[in-house]
Amino acid sequence: MTGTDDGTKAGTRGPARASGPRVPAPWVRTRLRAAPAAALALALLVALTAALAAAFPRAVDRYEDAGLRRTLDDASPRRTTVQFFAPRPDLELSLGEGENALREAALRKGYDAVLAAVDKPLVADRAQSSYGVRTSDPTDASDSFLARPSGLPPRVALVAQNALGAHSRPASGRLPRATDPVTATTSEVEAAVTTETARTLHIKVGSVIHVPGLERAPLAVRITGIVAPREPDGAYWMSTPLIREPSLIQLPSDGGTYWIGALLLAPDAGPVLLGTPGKPERYWQVAPDTSGPTAHDVSGLASAVAALESGPGLARIRERVDPLTDATTDLDEVLSSFTELRSGIAPLVAVAAFGAGTVAAVVVLMASGLAAERRRGELALVRARGGSLPGVLGRLLAETAVVAVPAGALGLGAALLAVPHARLSSAVAAALAVTVLACVALPVRAAFAHRAVRVHGGREDIASVRPSRRRTVAELTVLVLATAAVAALRRGGTDDAGSSGGSGDQLVALAPVLVGVIAALVLVRLYPFPLRRLAGPAGRLRGVVAPLSLARAGRTSASTALPLLALLTALTTAAFGGSVLAGVHTARDHAALLATGADGRIEATHALPTALPGRIRDTRGVREAVPVSVAYRAQARRGSGTAGETAALVGVEPGPYGQLSRELDLGGFPARTLRATGPGRGSGSGSGGSRGKAVVPAIASPSLADRFGTAPFSVQLEDDSKVTVRIAAVRDVTPAVTDLDFLVVDREALTRRAARPTALLLTGGHLDGAALRRAAGGGVDVRLRAEVRTAYVHSPLQSGAERIYTAAVAAGAGYAVLALLLALVRAAPERSALLTRLRTMGLTRAQGRRLLVLESLPQALLAAVGGALTGWAAIRLLAPGLDLTAIAVAGRPAPGGTARLRTDALSLLVPSLAVLVVATGVALAQAWWTGRRGSVRELRAGDGR
Questions:
Q1: Which of 25-39, 342-356, 841-855 has the highest mean pLDDT?
Q2: Rounded to an integer, what is the distance from CA 403 to the centroid of its chain?
Q3: Residue 608 gets which letter from DSSP?
Q4: DSSP 554-589
Q5: How far apart are CA 183 and CA 181, in angstroms?
Q6: Residue 51 CA from chain centroid, whole number
Q7: What is the pTM of this model?
């Protein structure tokens, strides 16, 4: 008997196995359990990349939104408010109908119609919007108690604006009232004035101001209260600044001055304006809500404003309110200034974004390539045993998606938490792109590697694999794209690209990346030839380390293109980005230097006190104070009958001023250039008679030199003194004057009055602005170079773009290091096995370290040198088309012209040296780690390799 009663064979142990078909273990679960470390590494890579990709557009949205809010807040409400106004009612109406049209109820109805015509995304700030009726032509107020600076009577405007009590608090008295129905013939009305108007015009509670009447007796306006605005800088008060504070007007004819102020009537007292000659008009002021709009709403805002100014919105208002209603605002100009600034900055940020994104994408592809290489034997065996290519690819996609999709979602969530209050769609799209790339990279790589069934493949190093025709065509295509991008950027610049929009902008932003791509493809093709040339001479050296390392470096894997592409792209982007940031800082420094002329400047419209230079020199941080006298409206002419040329005449001490100019590189000159050969002080002539006829040497700006040449000519100063000068040298700039034609002469050649210093140019490393202002006293202007430079960084668009650019370059550098590590990790098993085998043959530990370092050094050196050269070439090629002025000074008035991109040596050398250090460090660490492991264990682990 060979079996038992239960059907099991005799002698078998354990329970009986169930009959029926065998259920295979799930592929995905099995693979994840077989390689948990690889799955975790992929999840971390996808999560980090998805988080950075999703955070980038949200960070851009954040700083652009902040820039828009800053632009709107910096613009005065008078510019941002949309003002609608209509003249007095039609004269064909009866007097009663005209009066009713100026009452608050009718004005409120028109206000509702105006608000209904406002289209989104423009939203009205109802708390600051206002409406009412006012006299558009202020009239004289002849009351004797009112302020008269030059004897001229002040003029007052009558304003009946809604919600006066809600936007002010009584400082004294009470708010005006209109107890009885006010008409055009009312003899007296109540009014209030603001504290500024009361203080300036000498108005008190109880004062009665008489306003001329139109075909009637003067209107008596009794002041019942003085009010203080609750929000004096709000649109309610600043849309028409006259209602908050009076304005001093100067007559152009005789220079006389008079005040214009506003008397605030009760909201229902508007009909009384019909009895005055002040040309009453109705108005509705729509203040925009500046807290709601975002940067991507700017185009919609501009359209909404245009519709209200001269489009469908204004047509609806005219239909419902008055056919003669008109609109005016500067909000469209404010939005246009923001758009121009953003258009100048966005292309520069796009360059960094495309560079960092390219490196990140290459790293994800390298990670998939590492996984494909690690599983090459497994997948080849599956294909050899009958596995279909679609089936294998589907399982690879499933096992990758199980890891990548949750990791991508986690990265997206982290980005949303880290950068809140921004658009969601762009962040989701970026994270989804990263996740899709991570999911399909391994299946696509496996599809190309295993489309044909084979168990054993040939060698795939660069010595045996020749480039295919497809690769050649692809490389030529990339070359054409890179050439087109560089040509477009050189021809049009980032300004044209930023304004045109579309795929052309993306091609221009990709130009540095494409330059790196071309360099990587060319270097990969040329890389083996010098190594093979060196292998022969190295073979004649004593020892085996040098020839073996060169032989192995020359037969590296054919997949070197991806890590080299990542390194070159990262180094090019880092060099390009570092040069951009350095160029921005240099442009700001230079603009601030030209604006101040030195590290600090103290200047007055009159002569400075004699003791001031000594006090300033004793102030902490001041190294030197160079006095100069500047006559900004001097007239240079040749002959008495010729027209004068306005120029700034600068009187200096040649020695200190020349040294200052040389130190600052602002038109330096030797002191002897300005030394006068004739009489000294007093060689000029004043109104009292001539003191000398010496010709004074001068340094001139180019335009004056072109006009007057080297022949002597006369210069008349503002105090009517004259000096005869001859141009001895020409300089483009000089520290004392900015953006003006200038003549620099020796102070000794001027009259005593004209030679008195009006400015001090200060040098010093750490100037104390507060101490300088205390020492200078009142009546002078103190400007520091550091303060002027800080003022250029005004918009969040600038600071945000710089932070984004720095973060993008840092992320690209980090991914480049990761790419280098992945390349070394891919070759680590083979190197470890080789090193262990060589040690069994007598190779020492020191020789093993040198072998690994020398083997990895050619590729690292190739990437470092190639990256530096590629970065330099990209900067040289693209610099003519890049304008850094927008990000440097944000459209603020700044001397110095256009800021151009220049090569920064540190940005070129530091990243390249970092690549060499990392490659050497990893090789040394690998040699140290291999030495710790036993030879038997390593050789067993390497059997399969």
A1: 342-356
A2: 37
A3: P
A4: HT-BGGGHHHHHHHHHHHHHHHHHHHHHHHHHHHHH
A5: 6
A6: 23
A7: 0.77
Provide φ and ψ at 579, rounded to 5°. -70, -35
- Helices (DSSP H) in 282-388: which residue ranges? 298-310, 312-320, 331-374, 376-384
Please give the structure tokens belonging to residue 94: 């009866």
Q: Are 916 and 610 in contact (CB under 8 A)?
A: no
Distance CA 449, CA 370 (A): 13
The whole-angstrom separation of Cα 795 and Cα 69 is 10
DSSP state of 544: S
**Rounded CA separation 928/76 (Å):** 67
Angle at 721 between CA 719 and CA 726, to 5 degrees: 130
11 pLDDT band, cuts 50/70/90, is very low
First-to-final CA distance of the chain: 51
Average pLDDT over residues 588-593: 85
Query: How much of the chain is helix, strand and coil, in % rounded to 5?
Result: 55, 15, 30
Q: Which pLDDT value is given to residue 407?
A: 93
Mean pLDDT for 200-208 is: 92
Exposure b/e, 324-350, CB count within 10 A at least 16 = b: ebbbebbbbebbebbbebbbbbbbbbb
The distance of Cα 736 from the centroid of its chain, to the nearest Å, equals: 30
Q: Are 743 and 772 in contact (CB under 8 A)?
A: no
**Which amino acid, one-letter code, is at 285?**
Q
For residues 844 and 544, is the Cβ–Cβ distance under 8 A?
no
> Which two tokens mark 313?
């919105």
| Number of residues that make up the chain | 945
- Displacement of CA 577 from its chain's centroid (Å): 13
- The whole-angstrom separation of Cα 636 and Cα 646 is 6
Contact 339, 71 (CB under 8 A): no
Find the range with the poorest average confidence among 381-395, 585-599, 716-730.
Answer: 381-395
CB 849 within 8 A of CB 392: no
CA distance 757 to 91: 64
| Mean pLDDT along residues 533-559 | 64
Give percent of the chain above pLDDT 70: 83
Task: Give the phi and the psi of residue 508 in degrees, each rounded to 5.
Answer: -65, -40
For 11, 108, 172, 714, the CA distances from 657, given in Å and listed in that order, are 112, 66, 59, 23
Q: Which residue has the higher pLDDT, 495 or 273?
A: 273
Question: Cβ(583)–Cβ(900) under 8 Å?
Answer: yes
3 state SS for 878-898: HHHHCECHHHHHCCCCCCCCC
Strands 722-730 and 695-700: parallel
Rg (CA), the chain: 40
CA 692, distance to chain mean position in Å, is 57
Question: Are the CB atoms for 494 and 505 separated by under 8 Å?
Answer: no
